């Protein structure tokens, strides 16, 4: 009886532990704010130059999509890692998925962008194309609002972890314009071949950064490793990074890599 009960509850324990590990990581690794250095006098040429640089810097937008069972507010401390001057004019948004029944958790309701049929997720796990497409519409509505507010689409970056990483991939590839980039952390390709036909030529120009831990037991490394070949076959640029010893979580090294990656992308005037 105990074995039967354990097998029934096993998916729930996996999801709960993943959410807990993510929260602990964010709290533990959140850097302390640096003390401001002495400012030059108001007549200092250096200060005037810095102010002009900041004023001329194009506005950018980063949309972060959380994983299954998580929430947007729980991930907001991530933004504190991005302290470079390039992020002074960056707007961040951390939305939360609506509560939905999830098949891999025996139909239990939790925050979820779309349905997941099994855990661990492998390269051949079942897809939820219809659910993914509905979630993509919500992400696109957020992007459209930001573009309407004056942000150039090529200054918009979509990032996501786990299920949020899978949704990031779908949202970037199905958007009608070229975006600044899409960053997938511990994600997978969440759709079938029928969705590939919807990729626009502009979307294929959006660069992808894909990071995955070799010790991931929730979204298996094979699921992430299958992503870059799939993208390259469809004419999409992808930079893939593997992290030895990393399980189903985000590391400080990954966030530093993301910061450097975004900084290399040219900003378009808004």
Automatic annotation (TrEMBL):
Top-level taxon of the source organism: Eukaryota
Pfam families membership: Abhydrolase_2 (PF02230)
Annotated GO biological process: fatty acid metabolic process
Transmembrane helix in keyword set: yes
Domain Phospholipase/carboxylesterase/thioesterase positions: 58-264
Gene Ontology cellular component terms for the protein in this record: cytoplasm
Membrane-spanning parts: 12-29
Alphabetical list of InterPro entries matching this protein: AB_hydrolase_fold, LYPA1-2/EST-like, PLipase/COase/thioEstase
Keyword field contains Transmembrane: yes
Keywords: Fatty acid metabolism, Hydrolase, Lipid metabolism, Membrane, Transmembrane, Transmembrane helix
GO molecular function: carboxylic ester hydrolase activity; palmitoyl-(protein) hydrolase activity
Recorded family membership: Belongs to the AB hydrolase superfamily. AB hydrolase 2 family.
The protein, known as: Phospholipase/carboxylesterase/thioesterase domain-containing protein
């Amino acid at each position: 009886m105990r074995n039967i009960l354990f097998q029934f509850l096993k998916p729930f324990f996996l999801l709960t532990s993943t959410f807990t590990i993510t929260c602990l990581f964010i709290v533990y690794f959140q850097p302390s704010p640096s003390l401001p250095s002495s400012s030059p006098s108001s007549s200092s040429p250096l200060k005037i130059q810095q102010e002009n640089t900041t004023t001329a810097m194009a506005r950018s937008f980063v949309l972060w999509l959380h994983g299954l069972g998580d929430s947007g507010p729980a991930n907001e401390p991530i933004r504190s890692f991005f302290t470079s001057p390039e992020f002074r004019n960056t707007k961040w948004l951390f939305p939360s998925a609506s509560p939905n029944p999830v098949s891999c958790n025996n139909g239990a309701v939790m925050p979820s962008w779309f349905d997941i049929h099994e855990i661990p997720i492998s390269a051949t796990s079942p897809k939820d194309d219809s659910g993914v497409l509905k979630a993509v519409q919500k992400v696109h509505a957020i992007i459209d609002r930001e573009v309407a507010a004056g942000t150039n689409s090529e200054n918009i970056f979509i990032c996501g972890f786990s299920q949020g990483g899978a949704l990031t991939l779908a949202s970037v590839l199905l958007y009608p314009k070229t975006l600044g980039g899409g960053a997938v952390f511990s994600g997978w390709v969440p759709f079938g071949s029928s969705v590939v036909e919807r990729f626009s030529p502009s979307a294929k120009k959006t660069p992808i950064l894909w990071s995955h831990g070799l010790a991931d037991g929730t979204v298996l490394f094979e699921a992430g490793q299958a992503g870059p070949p799939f993208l390259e076959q469809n004419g999409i640029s992808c930079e893939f990074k593997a992290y030895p010893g990393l399980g189903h979580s985000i590391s400080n090294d990954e966030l530093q890599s993301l910061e450097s990656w975004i900084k290399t992308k040219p900003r378009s005037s808004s």
